């Protein structure tokens, strides 16, 4: 049985209003270490709003997000002082954006994109940083020879892989991903999905993954939450939810993917 201490992240009654418009409403769940939680739903259902709130990018209107910190156990993320939250966000946490442009610095080299994350957590040895950056390029299937090249010279799939390397080099425990394969060609998506699945397994990462693509959710996530109009309408093991959806909206989502 799981105990309270096993929880990595706990979200309670999370709500974000954009004026009188609902972004996400009354959302509660727990995430266990090593688990991949998928958040699915059509465009506008509140997935990104929820992800931004739990990853400390957008302060919720009400509700709490608690994280099991290495030193002090469960702590309210929005109750932390700003430097503590910032430190958490660049050490224990990582965030992979849909668009590599939002997650990379396009005007510095691939190596610097990875290296500056190491410097941000106190690494100062140039040779080590460079070596580590090369290793990480190869882990995401980019030739180390591209170390000094700008991300602008990379294909879309390579940029996304570089963004993943930049995020994982610091050894985070919890990774947030917002449509990580969105906007890429299908064959490029498939390769990226394979890579992501391997990295999640190798490093035992805990992931909160937002996607509108049920095939992506099926491949990567252990558990699924289905959102509609800002609320979670169905929640369960991925296979259960996709093979035997209970809610009419989920049934519709699942059947529309089967038809395409
Ligand atoms: P998803 O990621 O599932 O497409 P979003 O979280 O982006 O959904 O949006 C959820 C709802 O909140 C939508 O109705 C959207 O129009 C609204 N919304 C999102 N961002 C803003 C914003 N900055 N200002 C006002 N409304 C917003
Ligand atoms: Mg979104």
Helix-strand layout with pairing:
Layout (H helix, E strand, L loop, with lengths): L8 E10 L2 E11 L4 E5 L6 H8 L7 E8 L3 E4 L5 H10 L1 E4 L3 H4 L6 H11 L5 H14 L16 H13 L5 E5 L7 H18 L2 E5 L3 H7 L2 E6 L2 E7 H6 L4 H12 L1
Parallel strand pairs: 3-8, 3-9, 6-7, 7-8
Antiparallel strand pairs: 1-2, 1-4, 4-5, 9-10
The structure holds adenosine-5'-diphosphate (ADP) and magnesium ion (MG).
The site of adenosine-5'-diphosphate has 11 residues, from strand 2 and helix 1.
Verbal overview:
This protein has 260 residues and is an alpha/beta fold. The protein has 10 helices and 10 strands. The chain has a 6-stranded mixed beta sheet with strand order 6-7-8-3-9-10, sandwiched between helices. A hairpin with a 3-residue loop joins strand 4 (62-69) and strand 5. Helix 4 (110-120) crosses helix 5 and helix 5 (126-139) crosses helix 6. 40% of the residues are buried. It binds adenosine-5'-diphosphate (ADP) and magnesium ion (MG). Adenosine-5'-diphosphate (ADP) is lined by residues 18, 21, 23, 41, 43-49.
